[in-house]
Design a protein that fits this description.
With 419 residues, the protein is mainly alpha-helical. It folds into 2 domains: 17-204, Growth Hormone, Chain: A, CATH 1.20.1250; 217-414, Growth Hormone, Chain: A. It is built from 15 helices and no strands. It has helices at 21-52, 55-82, 85-108, 114-142, 148-176, 180-197, 214-227, 229-258, 263-290, 293-311, 321-329, 331-345, 351-366, 369-402, 404-407. The chain is globular. The N and C termini lie far apart (46 Å).
Amino acid sequence: MTVTPTVEIADPPPPSLWRNRAFNLLWTSQALSGLGSAMSNLALPLLTLGITRSPIQAGVVGTASAVVRLACQLPAGVLTDRMDRRRLMLICDAVRLFAYALLGFAVVTDRVTLAWIVITASLVAVFNVAHENAQFSAVRNVVPLVQVPDATARNEARQATVSLVGPPIGGLLYAAGRAVPFFADAVSYLLSFIGIALIRRPMQQERTEAREHPVREMIEGVRFTLTQPFLRSVLLIAPPINLAFNGILFAIIVILQQQGVSPALIGTTETIVAVGLLAGALLAPALARRVPLRWLVFGICWIGVALFAVAALLTGSILVAAPIALAIAFGPACNAALFGYQAAVTPDRLQGRVMSVIMLLAMSLASLASLLGGLFVQWWGGPGTVLAFGAILAVSAVAATFSKGVRDMRPLGEVTAPA
């Protein structure tokens, strides 16, 4: 008797993301709205200064927006998991469109006031948080799970690009007319609305569980995050990273200004860092595919610590931006690893709430970055400040090295989210 050998045929790899219509529509719509946001984020403080002549009042606008973002994180997570995510993003785009169109109209008719600006910035912040949370949570439903790190890396590249080109465009538009950037941002939200409306693929799995009180659902999201080893690791790793990088970027500006460096050259340092972020975002998909996830997290944290030590030797010139830019260049790959794995270990019904917990802690610590940067420069000078932020980054490196949740990371194809 002849025995025919059994041949196992491996599943074919998923098609390229460039051929994924739903992802490309989502990516493009967010690129357009992100570009509009980058333009209006520059124009808002300029408009406030133009009508009040007060830097303090201009700071009030940014502070109000930041406080609102923090306050809305957890409720936005609950909303993302309760609503249809596509419908939620459409509502957010519509509200932001009208908010900036009305602000532009108020500027044109010379009726704009500080209160109007603060209300607009705060309202937009609410719907920014809800939209971002829904978008993050939707990614794992529009791309195969194994491609989530690649999709996250491409989103990082998108964000880096709009952060680099958006502010200069916003400045040019503001020079052409104070209302122009806000009308342009309204148009960007219209285009985003159209792009999302064209997506036909569901952005969440079918909901079968009964709804509970929103507070109970919020607590469920917090409890799940704290009981999962990997997610607990992210809560330890991400906040110091954000604090270190945001703090060092602010501190570099202060250090160079104290040394009498011209504003133009100080602006050059920001461009160097932005280029580093963009380069890293473009390389992130390849790194995420070729390097094991846990080694991405280990390596990027420790490489960042080493580069901060190098930067401490260069605080006397704009060359200090070079090692910082190189360190930041590894950030998108790290984000791709962390958020890709988060999507894998979290049930779809909890995606919004888990993401809201992570973002809340990461952003709340980063809100201290400017304050600590100024204090460190005053206490320890340039090199000491850079080393201090390097020590903060080392906290993440140590946490990543000894964290069981990171050490036990497996290929995404082997990960199964709990029910």
